[in-house]
Sequence to fold (307 residues):
Amino acid sequence: MTNPSTDTKPTIGFVGIGNMGWPMAACLTRHGYPLQLADARRVQAENFVQQVGGFAAESLTALAAASDVVITMLPTSKNVGDALAEGTDNLLAGLRPGSLVIDMTSGMPAATQELAKRVAEAGSVMIDAPVSGGVPRAKSGELAIMVGGDPDAVNRARPVLNAMGSTILLCGAVGAGQAMKALNNLVSAGGFLIGIEALLIGQKFGLDPGLMTDVLNVSTGMNNSSQKKFRQFVLSRGFNSGFSLDLMVKDIGIATAMGRDSGVPAPFAALCREMWASAAAALGPGQDHTAVAKFSELLAGFELETE
Fold:
């Protein structure tokens, strides 16, 4: 496919066509944005072009040179740093002055702040905009997007972000979006674990976990996990939400590190991180984050069942 650079909308370079990046990039295509695409697995970018559209860039440098806006959606801040400025093929080598870089990775705020300085030195601007909502809301374009950065740069990014999300929340200076995302996932992780433990206690007593989930969802114990994860991914034994256990552990670690660095006592958060990290070690790599329920089942000595 030829490069659709003549489109009236700004060309977007999208780096990272993974579980979340693919549907997010597809939303941009549906909204008429011409895309330059790159992924560590080049075949992934080529498959996207064949199935959805866009142009598979020959290199990161070429992607940046052809783009007005560059989006990174990668696993970690290290991956972002490598793509942005490491090696002979990097984004900064091709970034045009005045470009906008949007890091949508759930990364480390301090690392992002340092990368933003390097982008500024190159004559462009960087904001962070991690997302919440998982693969289903990425597909529908209804993500919640937590943004950190200069307000003028954020306003410039809004039309692009609106193509992927239904809620855009300015959290503060660059790095603030990622700080908020990490804290959000800490709360989500705690709610998941306590909910699974409640289901295990109830089943041992004689209650049906499916019925318990229904009761929670019309009562004060309701949370995102009871609504969107317990029946769908745990009781179904699917464990296939599309968000990995390793990434959840990373995000919880960012949140607890923020607590340590700021001197805020957070014993429950520390225990939560220990539980999730122990689950990742026990279950091994490549697990979906909802598989953490298997670790609670292992401790209890039995599995959740439903009628």
User: Anything to note?
Assistant: Strands lie at 12-15, 35-38, 55-56, 69-72, 100-103, 125-128, 131-132, 143-148, 165-172. The chain is about 55% helix and 10% strand. The radius of gyration is 20 Å. Confidence is low (pLDDT under 50) at residues 1-7.
